[in-house]
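Quick start: what a row looks like.
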Amino acid sequence: MTTHDTNNLTLVQRMAVALTSLDEQELRDITTEDVFWAVPGTGRFAGRKQGISAIMAFAKVLRDYGVHPAVEETCLGTDSVAVLIHDTGTRGDAVLDSHSVFTLKQNVFLCR
């Protein structure tokens, strides 16, 4: 593993901790204010979350809904990182058990 790969992997780990622990300062330390998180589709969580405050608010909504993300795989590229996430949770009678892929490239989270 190269130093570049190690740095990207460390960034993914820090980002995961920041989002799950709702640590806004940590997210500020590793991104810039123009960061966004795009979730495709037309459902409740779909859309573009622009900026650190919006991303942190969305992370809080996910936590409040009982969503528990777990990193399953990480693929390191030359200028990006793809992360396979397993999302689980329950709220009332609703059960979530899905996978998503986050692509992190130059302060952009893309959920697919």
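That is the whole record. DSSP finds three helices and six strands in the chain. Residues 3-111 form a domain with the Nuclear Transport Factor 2; Chain: A, fold (CATH 3.10.450.50).
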